[in-house]
Design goal:
It contains 8 helices and 6 strands, in the order αβααββαβαβαβαα. It has 173 residues and is α/β, with parallel strands linked by helices.
């Protein structure tokens, strides 16, 4: 195996995007998930909590791993570059931004949503082998297994394919 699969995950970035996903934030800050994160080497966590109402983040009394949080920034690029591992909701922009930076990505689908199109994206990208996904309920177990799970490097698509398709659809060519 190459270093991509054997790296340590010291710095974790968690993002819920512009939405509300309190269950993910509650899970990441729970004793069971924090224990799992420590077991794979996580020592620092940055949480982007969006518009959620989960209040326990500001009341956390733990020192390890260290946790900082915020609601929004203009760009998540700095945090994504900083991270060794990304845990994200299944929003397309968040997933693609992490994958383009070749960050190991664990997607947590929000199974409380109706007509959850995000699970389709997570499932497709998982079948492509570039990420793994789970639910909030299986997060601790998936984190413990994550270092041993194989994944492929993300290969960005060829934009010419999309442009050609658009040209054909709109009769530009």
């Amino acid at each position: 195996m190459n270093a991509f699969y054997l790296q340590k995950y010291f710095r974790l970035f968690v993002t819920v995007g512009s939405t509300e996903f309190d269950n993910l934030i509650a899970a990441v800050t729970s004793d069971s998930v924090l224990s799992a994160l420590k077991s794979i080497g996580v020592g620092e966590i940055r949480l982007q909590i969006g518009r959620g109402r989960h209040e326990s983040v500001s009341n956390l009394q733990i020192t390890e791993p260290s946790i900082v949080f915020y609601r929004y920034k203009n760009s998540l690029a700095e945090d994504l570059k900083w991270a060794d591992l990304v845990i994200s909701h299944a929003g397309a922009a968040s997933c693609l931004e992490a994958l383009e930076l070749e960050k190991p990505l664990l997607v947590v689908v929000n199974d409380s949503l109706l007509d959850n199109h995000q699970i389709e994206l997570a499932d497709r990208l998982s079948k492509d082998g570039v990420l793994h996904y789970c639910t909030v309920g299986s997060l601790a177990d998936t984190v413990r297994l994550f270092p041993s799970l194989n994944r492929k490097r993300w290969k960005a698509g060829d934009p010419e394919i999309f442009v050609t398709w658009l040209d054909k659809i709109f009769n530009f060519s």
